[in-house]
Amino acid sequence: YFFLFYLLIFHSEFFYQLNKNVLATDKIVKENWLTKLDVRDSVELHLVFKEYQPNIVLHLAAETDLEYCEKHPDIAEATNSEATKTIAELSNRHGATLIYVGTAGG
């Protein structure tokens, strides 16, 4: 199963020097352009926001497999609710625009 766990943090102007100012993260790093980050780790989220001071946060992290979520409600809650709340609070605290994209299947 593929669980989309990207949290893209744009440090500067969105289109200006995009390659130098994007932090793309995933809980499982399979590409050299990704940085490991599990959005359920609130301590790590706080550190990332403090270090990168993002202007824009594109939040796509979610557990989207409904059967998996039913079998693991604690993980689904931590990922889809608690982590999203933390990201929203950190975005607000750091003055970053949060763009949240729901990826639920049907």
Task: List the uncertain runs.
Answer: 1-16
- Distance from N terminus to C terminus (CA atoms, Å) equals 15 Å
- What profile does the largest beta sheet have? 5 strands, mixed
How would you state the average pLDDT, rounded?
80
What is the overall silhouette?
A: globular
> Pairing-aware structural class of the strands and helices?
alpha/beta
Percentage of residues in DSSP E strands: 15-25%
What percent of residues adopt helix (DSSP H or I)? 25-40%
Strand adjacency order, main sheet: 3-2-1-4-5
How many beta strands in the DSSP annotation? 5
Report the radius of gyration as a whole number of Å.
14 Å
The succession of helices and strands, N to C, reads EEEHEHHE
Number of distinct helices: 3
Any overview of this molecule?
The protein is 36% helix and 19% strand. The protein is of the alpha/beta class and 106 residues long. It has a 5-stranded mixed beta sheet with strand order 3-2-1-4-5, with helices on one face. Helix 1 packs parallel to helix 3. The radius of gyration is 14 Å and the shape is globular. It starts with 6 loop residues before the first strand and ends in a 6-residue tail after the last strand. The model is unreliable at 1-16 (pLDDT under 50).
List the helices and strands and how they pair.
Blueprint (H helix, E strand, L loop, with lengths): L6 E4 L11 E5 L7 E3 L5 H11 L3 E4 L6 H6 L1 H21 L3 E4 L6
Parallel strand pairs: 2-3, 4-5
Antiparallel strand pairs: 1-2, 1-4
Features:
disordered N terminus
